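Troubleshooting entry. The earlier prediction with DI6 gave an output that would not parse, so I re-checked the input for stray whitespace and re-submitted. Clean input:
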Amino acid sequence: MNLPRSIWLHCKVATLQAGIAQPYGLIQDAALVASRGTLQWVGPRSDLPAEWLASCTQTGDVHDAQGALITPGLMDCHTHLVYGGNRAGEFEQRLNGASYEDIARAGGGIASTVNATRDATEAGLLEQSKPRLLALLAEGVTTIEIKSGYGLALEHERKTLRVARALGAAHPVTVQTTFLGAHAVPPEFEGRADAYVDEVVRMLPLLHAEGLVDAVDAFCERIGFSVAQTERVFQAAQALGLPVKLHAEQLSDSGGAELAARYKAISCDHLEWLSDSGVKAMAQAGTTAVLLPGAFYFLRETRLPPIAQLRAAGVPMAISTDCNPGSSPCTSLLLMLNMACTLFRLTPEEALAGVTRNAARALGLKDRGVLAAGMRADFVLWDVQSPAELSYAFGRNPRLQTVFGGLPPKGEEAGAAV
Ligand code: DI6
Ligand code: FE
């Protein structure tokens, strides 16, 4: 069959394929062939079938990558990108001596983001969130997860998830939505967390029926929801056949990871206080660990996630921005690569796998994260000599071009961002 093809030549390709023995699954002088948004072939240039090159030359579908490094499109697998307002004022007050409690009493903290999110119209929330998405796209992100969790009432959770979907429809990026109704207890349910969990369980099927929910998350923590409350949310998700993930062991060891493993969670995220039994449970369940160095940095945490244990147990590790106004106001996934190495001591190869192959696992997506035949044609051309440079330099964006679903983006997402 004569499929319409596009070929990229003169490139190094970090395939991230586990089956290729080189670090990063690297192919030095590579060629990459895409057809109808899917990769058809990736391999050494010398193995590229001559007739494909001849026919693509005729149709003008040969792209010269001019020596660029090509990686899979980056995936930011844990964000709270859609929210109203920001908390810069609170940041400033804290650095001028106010305590967290003073701020909370004055209506600050997470409650202030809930108010600002509720006050925003759908269009306004979209406008506020779009620059954050564009910043991530400028660094080669082609898939992003966006959680709700600052609405905390049906209409406002719906609005948040609709904005997430609208961002995906308007930009060259796949948006995976996660319902995080159990993020915090809203003011109208103060002191009645169980009653609020009833409300979360009521909201979920309604939002799911509107096509707004791809996965379900909860904040299982002393200052969030108990293991028992989290389990009720998971049961509701399970009843709908939705995958679960969990904010677990961020500030204390609550046993959330073990619970999540029992529900075959696709990911457990944060994990600074993860215990040995939590590591074991995650390994047995095939749950991916999502590490969030931006939150660790911004909250000035000192306890590291148990990287060596996760590695030894073979738990896949993903890396993400946790983009949110309270603990990680960050829109740079490249900076997270650097911080994963400097703060968590991941290798640059583990860090890159964390925003590609393992980020795909954390989202339960099997069609992306590595460059191989049959995968989506989402990839990025970088002005670097070696993949380690992506983790090494911080504050520089060496992206040359993104290809999303086989097509170079146009308009505001296009162009070099060096
Ligand atoms: N963990 C966090 O660090 C953020 N949410 C969560 O579940 C904090 C959210 C905020 O302060 O706005
Ligand atoms: Fe988070």
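This one parsed fine. The first helix runs from residue 50 to 59.
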